[in-house]
Amino acid sequence: MPVLNIAMIGSDALASEIAKSTETRDVQTYVHKEMNGDEQNILSIIRPVKYPDKLRPLLSALSVAEIGLIEIEALDRYFGEILIAFASSGISKGQYVINPPNGEWIDPEQVKMMFEQVGLNQWRESDRDGIILREEFYSMLDDIKPQLIELSQQPLAITVDQYFQVKGIGLVAIGYVQSGKVSVHDRLSVFPSGGSAEVKSLQVMDMDVNQSFSGDRVGLALRNGNASDFSNGSILTHPEVLSKSGEVEQPTGLEKHMVSTTEIHYSPFQKKRINVDDVVHASLDLQFVVGRVTNTSETCEIEWENPFMVRTSELKHILLTQLDSIPRILGEIKLIRKK
Fold first, then answer.
1. DSSP state, residue 334
2. Domains plus CATH for the chain?
3. Which runs of consecutive H residues, i.e. helices, occur in 238-299?
């Protein structure tokens, strides 16, 4: 059941032409399913409804998406921020639709040039037609299936954005399988709290399943878990396995950072440069972690207010933001070493 997660900036009207709305929070999710032989292929559009007023819903959508969709209504400062966001997230492929209000006009060549300026050369203009866009997305899903299969062989990482108690079921956590696979009866570790739980049952797209893979939005009913161990941005992994000699045979695939030494790759549209004592936020795997810059000599050292959990394999791009900057996204950071 391969799933293509699509981060979208645009209208509900366009999203609803492509897929059916299924869930609304700070982001609205739309799903379309089609059979391809014996295999069900799924498009999942993740649309941050509170952007641009709030930045975090956009960052959350980007952190779980493989490709993007932008409906362009104006070439304003938010359009520049949107391009920076997709480029800094490493979402190198996507579709865009030019759709200005009645009587207005947007130069397609200027739009194309702006995409190229931030390195989004593989994005393509498309018609504002839900059926055409859906076909293009299914073609993209075919292209990335090998990548999803490869990600499913990596250590498990489930990023959690909802958790709650359900009468008669117990603790339920909902999130995205960013890498690896999870099965019923698996024992899981909860980071950064250090808690644990056992998988009692799994649901993907409201269907009970025995196993869930990279790309899935999954609901986990958990046994022997505590809600106090969870927060938005918690990450679930398989526990570390030690040999009889005490050596690590199966790592969790996560590193905990309290201080990170980084290189900053500023966006081409970003003129701001950070200084010592600046407060910044890092976005990765649904985490939105506050940090303070402590050194900017040859590299940038950042002390985190709370533990920052980083996958050791198949790492997504880490966005660095500053909420009082324009644009608010500074660019991407590369970790040099863990402390």
1. E
2. 3-151 (3.40.50.300), 157-250 (2.40.30.10), 254-338 (2.40.30.10)
3. none
Q: Give the Cβ contact number of residue 219 at 10 Å.
A: 20
Q: Which two tokens stand for residue 212?
A: 């869930």
pLDDT at residue number 268: 87
Residues in the chain: 339
* pLDDT per position as a tens digit, 234-291: 999 999 887 677 676 678 899 999 999 999 999 988 999 999 999 999 999 999 999 9
pLDDT in tens, 127-171: 999 999 999 999 999 999 998 889 999 999 999 999 999 998 999
- Are 136 and 123 a contacting pair, CB within 8 Å? no
Q: Which helix (H) or strand (E) holds 140?
A: helix 130-151
Sequence-separated (6 or more) residues with CB below 8 Å from residue 7: 46, 48, 58, 61, 62, 64, 65, 67, 68, 69, 86, 89, 91
Count of helix runs (H) and strand runs (E) in the chain: 5, 24
- Residue 84, classed as helix, strand or coil, is helix
Q: Residue 193 and residue 60: Cα distance in Å, rounded?
A: 21
The dihedrals phi and psi of 210, each to the nearest 5 degrees, come to -90, -20
Other beta carbons within 10 Å of 105:
7
3-state helix, strand, coil in the chain (%, to 5): 20, 45, 35
Distance CA 218, CA 199 (A): 12
- How far apart CA 126 and CA 94 sit, in angstroms, is 10
